[in-house]
Amino acid sequence: MSHELRTPLNGILGYAQILQRDKTITPQQQKGLGVIKQCGSHLLTLINDILDLSKIEAQKLELHPTDFDFLTFLCGVSEICRVRAEQKNISFSYQTSQHLPQNLHTDEKRLRQVLINLISNAIKFTDAGSVKFSVKLIENGAATVCEIEQPDQCFTPPQCATHKIRFLVEDTGIGIPPEQIDKIFIPFEQVGDRFRKAEGTGLGLAITQKIVAMMGSTLNVESVVNKGSKFWVDLDLHEASQWVDASLMMPAIIRGYKGKKYKILVVDDRWDNRSILINMLEPLGFQLLEATHGEEGIEKALLHQPDLIITDLVMPHMDGFEMTRQLRQIPHFKKTNIIATSASVFILDRQRSQESGCDAFLPKPLQLEDLLETLQVLLKISWIYEETEVQNGVSYAAKYHNSADMVVPPISELITVKEALEIGDFETIEQEAERIKGLDESYANFALKMLEMAQEFDEEAIINLILLNSTH
After folding, report:
1. How far apart are CA 26 and CA 24, in angstroms?
2. For residue 272, what pLDDT band results from cuts at 50, 70 and 90?
């Protein structure tokens, strides 16, 4: 079932990403593309919620810890939720205590899922008043960290320590009757009025509770009807062993690559899937070839000898598994890079693709960033990034990675930018960038970078520009 749902989403989200890179698209059309991408992403989230629950119940969901910039991560979560709160005209506040670790080693994706679920649920059930998100370091090993108002007793936690961190979400919403509190953690069970029940699947808190349990903790709740609710969780989280510089993780716009022209063979029985890959990669300078099934894929590979093959797994006549196995028997293709793509989310299919000889696996809907990252690793490509303006021999694409050169104006000067981002009004963002540039000479780098991003209709990059640089 998930395969059938994710396959058409590959076309919707794939072409939304392709068209958003087109400089000829008008601002009005960009707004429409933004709506398409947002709605498609929301549908994908709902599908993934159901899949996550199935994996949890089958005890197949796994945590995958990575090192990441924790403080930047929290800013990103809070900003996503702030926009949702502003859409309901309710107050949203985000607070952190002193001595939070800069970097953590845990499953960033699942921690984000837990926090956004809790905050979104609070916003959903709050019609007036406020939602407050706070994060506090409460314990480091056997020692308890002091409160902010006792700075003389504070200490700096040792590197690579394990920290107990409390994530607390408070709201002034409708509250939950005592007899219904247990129900909110039951899958597909929803409490509250009919309107709010229609807003989701009833899976958010059920999944959140189960993920928190996998992280070794419990989800706590206190609620008073007509006064509000509190949800909190205390997690033991490991500090990262290496420093993570969030400014180096910021995306830049890729326009091509250095070196010889690479040939890529796309094998997929669906025209729309092949078309998406062609339109993603041809503008970057790759030569694309097509095949509709495994047998034709082998014929085209023998004839054209591509540098890399991207293949679907489920196809008529001959599937991607068998095609890969047969290609690996041919001496010339023993080391040819092969990427498997599939709308299937089953771990077994990923394992089978590896056993067949595939070098990588990308789930559908395809994300352009993931695709390009995989190509960079396999083909050892050096990308050419867009450089729209140069000063003193340094491009602004390069300066974007040096956030120390960025001076961000106060949040009061960015209100119009935030409002424009919510509706995809990039023309207004361009006007605001010009205005901010004239406010103070120190804002020039920031304003020019935001102008460049607005001209590229890159909403996510603008949000990151504001968030990441405002944390320094």
Report:
1. 6
2. confident
Give whole-number Cα distances, 255 to 21, 270, 390, in Å: 10, 27, 17
Half-sphere exposure of 7 (CA within 13 A, CB side): 15
Radius of gyration for the chain, computed over Cα atoms and rounded to the nearest angstrom = 24
Amino acid of residue 151: P
Q: Which CATH number is 66-244's, of 3.40.47.10, 3.30.565.10, 3.40.50.261, 3.40.570.10? A: 3.30.565.10
Over residues 51-80, the mean pLDDT reads: 77
What is the distance, to the nearest Å, from the Cα of residue 285 to the centroid of all Cα atoms in its chain?
27
Domain layout of the chain by residue ranges: 2-57, 66-244, 254-376, 390-470
What gap in Å lies between CA 177 and CA 139, rounded to an integer? Answer: 32
Give the dihedral sign, CA 173/84/414/70: positive
Q: What CA–CA distance (Å, rounded) separates 96 from 346?
A: 38
The CATH code of domain 254-376 reads 3.40.50.2300
- Distance CA(408)–CA(444), nearest Å, equals 9
Backbone angles phi, psi at 278, to 5 degrees: -65, -45
Q: Any alpha helices (H) in 88-203, and if so which ranges? A: 108-124, 194-197
SS3 21: coil
pLDDT of 87-133, one tens digit each?
A: 788 899 888 887 888 889 998 888 988 998 899 889 988 988 999 99
Q: Evaluate whether 70 touches 102 at the Cβ level (below 8 Å).
A: yes
In this structure, the number of other CB atoms found within 10 A of the CB of residue 364 comes to 23
On whether the CB atoms of residues 338 and 379 are closer than 8 A, the answer is no
Spatial separation of the C-alpha atoms in residues 385 and 7, rounded to whole Å:
31
Distance between start and end Cα atoms, the chain: 45
Q: What are the tens digits of pLDDT across the range 419-431?
A: 888 777 788 888 8
